[in-house]
Amino acid sequence: MTAPATPAAPRPLPFPLPHEDRQLSPYTGWTRAHWEAAADGLLRATAPYASPRYGLIHFPGARPSSSGRRSDGLEGFARTFLLAALHAAGHHGPDPHTHQGRHDPHHSRDPHAHLARYAEGLASGTRHPTDDAHMTSQHPDSWPRIDTIRQARVEAASIALALRLTRPLLWDTLDEPVRARVADWLLPALAPSPIDNNWWLFGLTVGGFFLDAGIETVRARAAVDRALARVEEWYGGDGWYSDGDNRAFDHYNGWALHFYPVLHAHLAADHTLLATHGARLRAQLAHHTRLFDSNGAPLPFGRSLTYRFAATAAPWLGALTGHTPLTPGATRRLATGALRHFLDRGTVTRDGLLPLGWYGPYPPMLQSYSGPASPYWAAKGFLGLLLPAGHPVWTAREEPLPAETADAALPLGRTGLLVQSTASDGLVRLHNHGSNSVRTTPDPYYSRYAYSTRTGPTGPATSDTTTTATDLPADDNHFALLVDGRPTTRGPATPYPAGPDSAASLHLPRRADGSELPGVQVLSATLVHGRAELRAHLVTGAAPGTPVRQTGWAATPDGPTAQLHPVRGYDETVRHAATGSTLMGPRTRTAYLDGTVADAAAGTLFLALASLTAEASPAPVDTLATVAATGDGIQVTWQDGTRTRLPFPVPPAPGDTA
Predict the structure, then answer these.
(1) E strands within 43-193?
(2) What is the three-class DSSP state of 512?
(3) Burial of 433 (0-12, 13-18, 19+ CB in 10 A)
(4) Sign (positive/negative) of CA torsion 484, 487, 489, 490?
(5) Low-confidence winner among 205-214, 222-231, 336-345, 457-466 (lowest mean pLDDT)
């Protein structure tokens, strides 16, 4: 059995938790009671930051989002309202078939009166909706209008979903004038989305609530159908959606692109829709559950990572709807492991709040839309509370995660992503040969060749965040040409055919100023076995003598051991540089190799072996494989005797041996 998902010295929380139960939960020690206590603790901590009539919640922090302070206050209301709704609905929630309450005799409907505060906020927030984004008007509780401040559309989805989940407890008890004002405020969310990505699903979510409540049903049905049709165009099979037209594959698959359609189908008891989207969710979970470390950490890859354990929303949704490859015990092990991973590592401040960051605050990973309340979309990770206390997901004994049972190398459908995990340390790595940022500029959380559950990329995610100190003139886990002394960036990666234990991609490198290098392209591949990685790059079109650089993992002093070794095309010297902080901590160091382009027309092949491991005293990475580049590809003999062929072009190089 793997050790419990807890650090050596867990950080104390500002709210009490029940005693551990190691019989029921041998891996985490936590039960449903811990989830309820965490939800209550997080919600109680928000009360001091509410506006006079609870219409807005303004969390402390000097960094507002790009949408303005009033929008940030609405975000605070909406996202914590969703948490309160999931908690309350789990005690006395709507049955999707009857819309009648399901009472748990062991709990009152709303034991801490959370919903009462949100009922007051619904009334005050909609009394004087405003176009004022910066809290300059005389109405401190008023919500921003959806049709003028577009971020309000995002929060409308959380509000509508919370109302739908608690309809017998809250919506049906509101005065008719309040219901009318809330409906009027929500109506603009039924219009076509102003952003062509997962935002379409916010209209679906508002429309689903309206259909349930009998409000503007024609417009609501049109919004639902329009959203489902648009998202359908991004479905690439094997459970994966792109978040728009740009091949952006990340956690938005779990906490948005599956979350809203599947939950809507479940709540609407639409069996036809659920059959289609439930099967896709099951396929997604077969991959998604591979992205969690044995210590509970989800993989820090993509944007909006400050939502943290919202990554567990999809596994909970699978258990809720029955569309999951996981057993109940494995589902709870995964979700609880993630929750405890963060709470044990200082994610909650002394005041009981969730800061902008990963563990503690970490500005370089944020986006311009991130505001003080953004982390509270972690509320989606509490979806499991909709399952009653007697459900097997709460009563079954915890079971191990995929990362704990056996080494794995798994391509994630047609995304160009390859998962590599090792059972000896429970560490998960993701090799990226096909997922691209939603931004046009390079983003460290998409553009690197590799990510892991125990390292993070160096450098800021956007130009509006602080930078990190670095002595290395190239990013970690990157391959670059050095043009005028500056490393090229990786253009959009197009997947290239690969095998069951490898991934490959083609990209056009760009200068630091964003301009392309005419005629230059880089074909890259990663082949994995155990903890070993073979990193291959074929550079064509670059002038002979052009320097190149391969970098390795950016590891913290107390993190895993990172190794890098030259095989072909590089100098024999392995150098190391200080690379500043990552979301895992400060003082990272990164190994790198330097080489030189030899042939522009035929191309130059560069090969290196890399490793990231938490094993104690690991053997040097060059002992893990023997590599030979031949005319029909790259032949690898691994340390255990296994042989693998990587079908990769090898340019002729007389007298050059690997």
Answers:
(1) 93-94, 101-103
(2) coil
(3) buried
(4) positive
(5) 457-466
CA distance linking residue 356 with residue 351, whole number of Å: 14
Q: Concatenated DSSP letters for 9-27?
A: SPPPPSS--PPP-TTT-TT
Q: How far apart are CA 155 and CA 174, in angstroms?
A: 20
Angle at the Cα of 136 from the Cα atoms of 131 and 138, rounded to 5 degrees = 90
Q: For residue 273, count CB atoms less than 10 angstroms from its CB and return exposed for 0-12, middle for 13-18, buried for 19 or more.
A: middle
pLDDT digits (tens, 9 = 90+) for 117-155: 999 999 999 999 999 888 887 899 999 999 999 999 999
Find out whether 441 and 465 touch, Cβ atoms under 8 Å.
Answer: no
Burial class (CB in 10 A: 0-12, 13-18, 19+), 435: buried
DSSP letters, 381-420, are GGGGGGS-TTSHHHHSPP---HHHHS-EEEE-TTSSEEEE
Q: Which residues touch 515 (CB under 8 Å, ≥6 apart)?
A: none
Other CB atoms within 10 Å distance of the CB of residue 409: 21
**9-12, long-range: CB < 8 A, 24+ apart:** 10/343, 10/344, 10/345, 11/343, 11/344, 11/345, 11/346
Tell me the C-alpha distance between 162 and 85, whole Å.
Answer: 5
pLDDT tens sequence across 533-548: 999 999 999 999 999 9
How far apart, in whole angstroms, are the C-alpha atoms of residue 446 and residue 311? 17
Strands across the sheet containing 604-613: 494-496, 502-507, 521-529, 532-540, 604-613, 561-568
Question: CA angle 331-29-105, nearest 5°?
Answer: 75
Residue whose structure tokens are 């939950």:
263
Q: Tokens for 525, please give them.
A: 């591949």
> Backbone phi, then psi, for 134, in 5-degree steps?
-120, 20
Return d(Cα 177, Cα 592) in angstroms, integer.
65
User: C-alpha distances in angstroms, 372 versus 146, 147, 621?
Assistant: 20, 23, 43
Closest CA to 575 of 592, 560, 556: 592
The structure tokens listed for 142 are 């008023």
Which spans in 425-541 are helix H? Answer: 444-447
**655 φ/ψ sector (left φ>0, alpha ψ -120 to 50, else beta):** left
Q: Give 377's DSSP letter.
A: G
